[in-house]
TrEMBL record:
<protein>
    <submittedName>
        <fullName>Leucine-responsive regulatory protein</fullName>
    </submittedName>
</protein>
<dbReference type="Pfam" id="PF13404">
    <property type="entry name" value="HTH_AsnC-type"/>
</dbReference>
<dbReference type="InterPro" id="IPR019888">
    <property type="entry name" value="Tscrpt_reg_AsnC-like"/>
</dbReference>
<dbReference type="Pfam" id="PF01037">
    <property type="entry name" value="AsnC_trans_reg"/>
</dbReference>
<dbReference type="GO" id="GO:0043200">
    <property type="term" value="P:response to amino acid"/>
</dbReference>
<dbReference type="GO" id="GO:0005829">
    <property type="term" value="C:cytosol"/>
</dbReference>
<keyword id="KW-0804">Transcription</keyword>
<dbReference type="InterPro" id="IPR036390">
    <property type="entry name" value="WH_DNA-bd_sf"/>
</dbReference>
<dbReference type="InterPro" id="IPR011991">
    <property type="entry name" value="ArsR-like_HTH"/>
</dbReference>
<feature type="domain" description="HTH asnC-type">
    <location>
        <begin position="3"/>
        <end position="64"/>
    </location>
</feature>
<dbReference type="InterPro" id="IPR000485">
    <property type="entry name" value="AsnC-type_HTH_dom"/>
</dbReference>
<dbReference type="InterPro" id="IPR019885">
    <property type="entry name" value="Tscrpt_reg_HTH_AsnC-type_CS"/>
</dbReference>
<keyword id="KW-0238">DNA-binding</keyword>
<dbReference type="InterPro" id="IPR011008">
    <property type="entry name" value="Dimeric_a/b-barrel"/>
</dbReference>
<dbReference type="GO" id="GO:0043565">
    <property type="term" value="F:sequence-specific DNA binding"/>
</dbReference>
<dbReference type="GO" id="GO:0006355">
    <property type="term" value="P:regulation of DNA-templated transcription"/>
</dbReference>
<dbReference type="InterPro" id="IPR036388">
    <property type="entry name" value="WH-like_DNA-bd_sf"/>
</dbReference>
Length: 151
């Protein structure tokens, strides 16, 4: 799907607040409600817009610790990778997981209540899959966090 300037404005508004009314979005992008709704529908059908969700305040809910976990493995077989990916997908503490180029094979963003909860996560993970080396880095302060794309 080709995205034009109006589509970009709509996407910016949706990223800012997906709960706002169609009237508010239309007003912000200089259009009327029906054309905006049609554009949103087309972008959903094309997969440009995915599932809509809500952002929760992790600290207000008691999740005060964010760890970035660097994983090196000596295993690179398909069955190990499938088992590892399954373990990550089943752990709700893992907010993000990336396979990397370079010395580190994977990086995880893990959100937990505290260091004890991280240790429980770590012990569970290494009991499920063999890893060569794990380094956990505690985030002291979240300076910026966004899921918005720079449209």
């Amino acid at each position: 799907m080709k995205i034009d300037a109006t589509d970009r404005k709509i996407l910016i508004e949706l990223q800012r607040d997906a709960a706002q009314s169609l009237d508010d979005i239309a007003k912000a992008v200089g259009s009327s409600k029906t054309p905006v709704w049609n554009r949103i529908r087309k972008m959903r059908e094309a997969g440009v817009i995915g599932a809509q969700t809500v952002m929760l305040d992790a600290e207000a809910l008691g999740f005060e610790a964010t760890f970035f976990v660097l994983i090196r493995t000596s295993e690179h077989e398909a069955d190990w990778q499938a088992k590892f990916l399954k373990a990550l997908r089943e752990r709700p503490e893992v907010q993000e997981a990336h396979r990397l180029a370079g010395d580190i094979d994977y990086i995880l963003k893990v959100r937990v209540q505290n260091a004890r909860a991280y240790d429980q996560f770590y012990q569970a993970l290494i009991s499920e899959v063999k890893v060569h080396n794990v380094t956990a880095l505690l985030s002291m302060e979240e300076i910026k966090a966004t899921v918005a794309l720079p449209l």
